[in-house]
UniProtKB/TrEMBL annotation:
<dbReference type="InterPro" id="IPR013830">
    <property type="entry name" value="SGNH_hydro"/>
</dbReference>
<dbReference type="Pfam" id="PF13472">
    <property type="entry name" value="Lipase_GDSL_2"/>
</dbReference>
<feature type="domain" description="SGNH hydrolase-type esterase">
    <location>
        <begin position="46"/>
        <end position="209"/>
    </location>
</feature>
<dbReference type="InterPro" id="IPR051532">
    <property type="entry name" value="Ester_Hydrolysis_Enzymes"/>
</dbReference>
<dbReference type="InterPro" id="IPR036514">
    <property type="entry name" value="SGNH_hydro_sf"/>
</dbReference>
<dbReference type="GO" id="GO:0004622">
    <property type="term" value="F:phosphatidylcholine lysophospholipase activity"/>
</dbReference>
<protein>
    <recommendedName>
        <fullName>SGNH hydrolase-type esterase domain-containing protein</fullName>
    </recommendedName>
</protein>
């Protein structure tokens, strides 16, 4: 895999790699053949460390790429560890609204857009968090009106705190208020359990595969794979 900088954009199609620009995005085509890069459904993900592949060893081993590969889709990801709907992230490339702008949804025409955020917004003022969730959902709906929209909410860290549960509830309610058809992937209320690294938060490589498998199952349940 060729990489242009510490925070470069990189794309893979089958086993070939090509530099496509600067930023925090990476793309992946999960299918082979001449039409692999264009004529496949696209999964667009904006998120924090878990979407950036932290714990797996590299973004290419993160759940978004694994999920797209499993479905035979392309993937495009914009993520910054520590980012949230309000928190700008470790490299100050967030929050989600700003990271979302790097995905160029209007030209990518994604089939599904997922926002993975919440843990880094724990203890954020509820009104500010609600407003920012609305902004992100509205931006997706404006730039990709034909895409299905999902939110992947707060991940557990050991036994979730009351503040984590409260943050999760705010995000889900705000997302549904902004767009009633939003799909919710909720690790807390669904009691997700997967292998993690020592911090008890970030998935191992096997944990990322578990998440990809779980969301793929949810996609099939919701009819998003058709």
């Amino acid at each position: 895999m060729k990489r242009v900088s510490k925070f470069g954009i990189y794309a893979t199609v089958a086993t070939a790699a090509a530099v496509v620009g600067l930023g925090t995005q990476h793309g992946h085509a999960g299918a082979t053949g001449p039409e692999a890069a264009q004529d496949r459904p696209t999964l667009a993900v904006v998120g924090a460390s878990i979407s950036d592949g932290v714990g797996a060893g590299s973004p290419q081993k993160g759940w978004p790429v694994l999920l797209a590969h499993q479905l035979g889709w392309r993937s495009t990801v914009s993520a910054d560890p520590g980012a949230g709907y309000v928190n700008p992230g470790r490299h100050k490339l967030g929050p989600m609204e700003r990271l979302l702008g790097k995905l160029q949804l209007a030209s990518e025409h994604p089939t599904v857009v997922i926002v993975q955020a919440g843990y880094n917004d724990i203890n954020t003022p509820p009104a500010e968090l609600t407003a920012n969730v609305h902004k992100v959902i509205d931006q997706i709906r404006t730039q990709a009106p034909d895409a299905a929209v999902g939110v992947l909410t707060v991940f557990p860290k050991g036994q979730p705190s009351p503040a984590a549960w409260a943050t999760d509830k705010i995000i889900v309610e705000a997302a549904k208020a902004a767009y009633p058809k939003v799909y919710v992937f909720d690790p807390l209320t669904s009691h997700w359990v997967f292998p993690t690294v020592a911090d008890r938060l970030h998935p191992t490589a096997a944990g990322h595969q578990w998440i990809a498998n779980r969301i793929a199952s949810d996609f099939r349940h919701y009819g998003l794979t058709h």
